[in-house]
Structure formats: C-alpha cells, structure tokens
Amino acid sequence: MTDLRNFISLIKKSGDLKTIKNPVSTKYEIAGITAKVDGSFAILFENIRESKFNLIANLVGTRKRFSQAIGTEETKIHEKIISAIKKSKKPTIISSGKFMQNKLKNISQIPIVTHFEKESGPFITSSIVYVKNPESGNQNSSFHRMMPIDKKHLSIRMVEGRHLHRCFTDAKEHGEDLKIAVTIGVHPAISIAGAYQAEWGADEINIANSLLEGKLALTKLPYTGLMIPSGTEIVMEGKVLQDKTQSEWMVEMLQTYDHKRKQPIFELEHLYFRNNPIFHDVLSGFSEHRLLMGMPIESKLNGELKREFPQVKKISMTNGGCKWLHAVVQIRKRNEADPKKIIKKTFQAHRSLKQVTVVDDDIDPNNAEDVEYAMATRFQADKDLIILSKVRGSSLDPSSDQKNLQTAKMGIDATKSLKKRPEGFEKAKIPKIDKIKLKNYFKK
C-alpha cells in the first residue's frame, strides 16, 4: 500500500476524488480546473488531448487528505511526522520496480502542464530528485521543478546552498556531470518526506518509509545506481550537465512570478513508466503546494519549540502567509519574557519566516480573526513589537532584497500582560448558550 494508485483508491472510497473524462488540454485548462477546485477534492484527468497518460492534481490539497497520506488523524499530523523523523528507517530493496514496464529515450509522451500565462514554459512541478551525497554516501531526495527544453533536456531549479545544489557544486568542482534520478507520481507520504529539509547527509526516503510503517520498497536504477520507490509511475534518470544553463522563471508558493534565473540543464538517459501511467501535477501557489511545503516545516517548528519551551501549545503556519512566511505561536504564558524568547527561537528554526505572532492559549492560531482580536486587545506597538533589519529571509518574497537574500522581520507579542488585571482580558461568556437552538424560537 505504498504507491500512488493505493492512495488514489483510498481517497476514492472516502469521496475525496472526482474523475474528469471530458477531453482537456495541458495548456492552461488543467491548471484552471485545479485552481477552481483549489484543494477541496483531488481530480483525476483521464482524457488529456496531448498525451495518453492520466493526470492527478490536488492530491493532498486538504489537511484531511494530508493526514490520510501518512496514516493518522488530522489532530496528530505533527506527532506522526516528528516520530517518523526520529525513527526513520531504511526501506527494503527489490530487484525490479513496476516502473520498468515501459522504457523510452525521450519525454515526448509526458503530459507536462502549462500553468500560468507569463511563465517561461510548461513545468514538471511534482518532480522529486534523488542524488548521492558526496560526503556521507547516503541519498538525498528533494523537490525541484523542471522545464522541458527539448525531448531530452530540461532545466532544473536548484536553490543555492540546499543539498542538491551542494552535490552539484561538488561534482562541478571535480569536473564531472552529476548523475540524478527523478520520480513523478509517488505515494504522497514520499512527497511529504521529500519536501522536508533534513540534515545534510540524511536520507529523506527513510522518513517516508517510517511514515509508511516500514512497507516501502526501493529498486536500483541501471544508469545512476540510485534507489527509487519501486511503485513510482514515471522515472527519469540521467545527469545534470556541469557547464550548461537555461533561463527560466515560474510562479512560486506566493502565487507571484519568480525572477529570471539561469539554471542547470538535466540530460535524459532513460525514461521509465508503468502501464497506464499517472502523472502528478502540483499547481504552484495553491493549496496542495502550500501544504506539501508548509506542513513539514510546521511539524518541525512544533517539535523544536515544544522541546525547548513547554509553555508552547501549538504553532500554525498561516494561510495568509502562504504556509511559509508567517507563523502564529500559541502559548500558556508564564512570565513577560516568554514571548520574545519564543519569537527569537521561531525565526531561528525556519529562517524564511517574516512574521511571528505569539498569542495566549485562549486564542485559536488557525483563526485569523481570533489572532487579529488578540492584536487589537493585547498588543502595544511601542512595547510588544520586535523589528529585525537586514537578516536572512526567503528568496521568494518579492518585497525583499532577493539578490542578497535579506529582509526585515517582525515579531508580535499579542499576549495578555501579566502586570494588568486578568479580568480585563477575559472574553465574556453567556451561560448555556450552546444549548440554545434558534429553530425552537423562530417557528413558522
């Protein structure tokens, strides 16, 4: 039960999958339908004009489907992810994967989607890249968008300093191309692990295996020697060329266009795919993208902050902050210094954060109106505001200094002052209001 088809069957049974049999185009139409739905249910496209492949979108576009992907309840997502990171274990190895049923030398049959009008081209957005760490010898797996240039070459976006880029830099310094493998269409638990930024030298696929209760199997690829999930729908293996680049730009998590970048070029050696393959498309900046990237970070923050500060109850990466730039931390305040210490630690734990708001435990961190209420009644800008200038931030934020990766950050202490009378902050309640049913009073 560790491949994409198993998960599709699961969400079909729970009523979270809808199938479109009408002919659709990869040029804007699939993206438009996905955006209209924006996560509320997964969509399986079975009739694509430009390809014989099927396509799935909005796969984990809600917390419900996200929790289904890792085999837990919505309220226990963070505990499951934190446990999987701590108890990660190697998958089993089998000799032949299901993806080896078909083999080609080009990408012409893949239904690569054109999403937005001003992007530099169509993009593969669910592509997980596998590479061998030059120091530890372990593999690394991570998400990297890819834009087709011709039938055998694609640009590949690498964030400077991240693990794949470090591996690429090492290969380049040794005068070598970098061998990699790429999977498209895996069980979403594998995608969730691939979106997590593990420590240098650690293998995210071991986290995926833990999320899947140790049932994941890998198969060795002939050209690269890399191990990839045996049930993968589509696999590419080849090399990243050391001395060639391509200009590209696309929409990011913030639903804004990234600036033009010269990115390395991947050269295909082999394309493998299952019979009746299913391509997975992630619409950039919409719910599935934000949950895939933001939820592992949210779990990381919950784990690290609760370990250091027992007064921390819950941390939420907000929808308005695109699940990446803004966080709300709910605490049971012990002393006046707590919020500022927690704000500092939260910024350290996820350096892309631009705003951290700390609230009391009677405020729901997932309710934007509740958080604003806390700011309105418990926050004083001259005492409770922290401003950090010219610090490391997210490369995605168009308002920042993107060239030097510098931004300004804001910490907001929206907690009740312990020096004032507590009754002044108490929300007034009406006794037994939950038992009042209006239909009993307004009868026809």
Globular, elongated, flat, extended or rod-shaped: what is the shape? globular
Low-confidence stretches: none
CATH topology of the largest domain: Pnp Oxidase, Chain A
Measured distance between first and last alpha carbons = 53 Å
Label the CATH architecture of the largest domain. Roll
| Structural category | alpha+beta
Beta fraction: 25-35%
Instruction: Report the top-level CATH class of the largest domain.
Output: Mainly Beta
Work out the helicity level.
25-40%
Q: What is the assembly state of the chains in this entry?
A: single chain
The count of β-strands is: 20
What composes the largest sheet?
A: 8 strands, antiparallel
Within CATH, the superfamily of the largest domain carries the name: Electron Transport, Fmn-binding Protein, Chain A
Number of domains: 2
Count of helices?
11
Please explain how this structure is put together.
The protein contains 11 helices and 20 strands. It folds into 2 domains: 4-287, Pnp Oxidase, Chain A, CATH 2.30.110.10; 309-419, UbiD C-terminal domain-like, CATH 3.40.1670. It is an alpha+beta fold. Helix 4 crosses helix 7 and helix 4 crosses helix 8 (287-308). It has helices at residues 4-13, 29-37, 63-69, 77-86, 163-173, 188-195, 204-211, 287-308, 338-349, 368-378, 381-384, and strands at 17-20, 42-45, 54-57, 92-94, 102-104, 128-132, 139-143, 146-148, 153-156, 178-184, 217-220, 227-229, 234-248, 261-273, 278-281, 312-317, 326-331, 355-360, 385-392, 406-414. A hairpin with a 6-residue loop joins strand 6 and strand 7 (139-143). The strands form 4 sheets. Strands 5, 6, 7, 8, 9, 10, 13 and 14 form an 8-stranded antiparallel beta sheet that branches.
